[in-house]
Amino acid sequence: MAPPVLFALLLSLVNISLGSIFTAPEQVSAFKKYDFIIVGAGTAGSVIAARLSEDPSVNVLVIEAGVADNGTDSELIYIPLLAGEGVGTLFDWNYTTTAQSGFNGRALDFPRGFVMGGSSAINSMIYSRGPSDEYDRLANLSGDSGWSWDNLEGYRLMNEKHSSPWNNRSNVGEYDPSVHGYGPLLTGLTPTVFETDNRVIANTAAYPEQYPFTLDLNSGNGLGFGWLETSVGNGSRSTSASAYLHPALNSRSNLDVLLHTQATRLVSTSGKVTFREVQVAQSATATIYSFKATKEVILCAGSVGTPQLLMLSGIGPTEQLKSVGITSVLNLADVGNNMQDQSILALQWEVNGTSLSSFLSDATALNESLEQWAINKTGPAAGNMMVNTIGFLRLPSNSTLLVAGDPAAGPNSAHIQLSFLETFYPNPGQVSPTTGSWMSATVVVQSPTSRGSLNLTSSSAFVHPTINPAYYTTAFDIGAAIEGVKMLRDFLATPVWDGYIIAPYSAVAALQTDAEIETYIRTFANTLDHPTSTAKISKITDSFGVVGPELLVKGATGLRIVDASILPAAVAGFPQAEVYIIAERAAALIKSTWSLS
Question: Where FAD is bound, by residue (predicted)?
Fold first, then answer.
């Protein structure tokens, strides 16, 4: 736990607001009319709320089931060094998957943000837009060229701004200033370069054809190795709440946020599929309240919360709804289906020298860094230290895994992601060594083909749905993961690593055959926490899908979805950045629909 002095500093992150923050539905005036109701104050919801409230003629209400981001334990959100420590706490929905056959029957913790800022407040802070192919695929599948990479340029620029690290370390030659913008979200590169990072980059210089260096992986070039941007600026994590929602609340009286309150059902007009009313409650036994929007209800509850709320409202697969006693209002078979997620596997090596492992195992050094952050947001705690370099690779064109087709978004999109850490990063079930210096590298299948589902087990919003991402249930996925491990070993076998890598961790050293690698993957891989596609987009003329190109729910009126659930497949980059960009354009579409400024 961070020192108590941090709490006063964290409270100062949020000023007294003109907009209201309510903590119970009865506090909201029954006489106030809202034009837009947004369900979820996460990555997308905060963007939509901030952009719509720019027009003073409209009133906006945001309903958030979770907690404030500036109260108890908020240091777990805003101190960059503690990124990921919010998982499993009061800031997390604390979901669990079903037993995964691809993981030898293991059920996994499935983190999702339960706080203002949503998952942007508890994730690993990575800001990676992904390749241009990703957005062009979105445009093609939706039939709307506005979603293409080229046409989204303005929305990319209005989302984020590159900032210098706390120590003003020069990062010239590590990123391309021309592809970064002027938006409220702050992004940046590491304040501390480690020996592991230097050798990753040196490998690209020594073997440029095999391991090309990409100046900026946010440029639309989705392949190669380069430096990793994170959502950090001015020594703190930058979230959708700190960048968008709080500044809007602090300056506008037409924006309200209701916390600790869960949307339980959308109510349709009798005999019609118009959804402009949201029922809410604070527990399964609490009083139910209703709020109505005169224009739209916008769901930003994420790849779990959005399909769950749709189904609770009678929108989804008729037979699935019937099984829990919910009457179908709108039969959309793809609600809750087509779920994709990516998994991550770590491998470790002992190295020469003093690595980050030494700092992370030194309680005195850690406490001193937290105290320094509390004083002036500087020091080792004030910037990303864990993953600074990353690589995106494709399988060989003659790979037998591609015979049935290429699942990647396009030829500029990766099949495999490798990232590098100068410490021992354990998989679930592994214990970090207490001695020695270590580095780790992770393998991610960037473009999986496995698809799972999310289903209701109850008609109550307060009962978690079953979450089945169906990891490694296709031959491509497990085959690509095995090839990814081999690619990583080849990358670390060049002379560039001589004198630095001593030996692989014992469990890694034992991996010799494909069968042994597969067993290791199924035993130790974990979720990367990137669920998508449970309310996926399609053309307006398609009989499948949940939303059309403007993200309006098919067959419904007054209802739109803006979050990762609309994505057609697992992202080729990292979902945080893509969801921000999608939300920026979605806000513009909503403004255009209603002729707002």
Answer: 115, 575-576
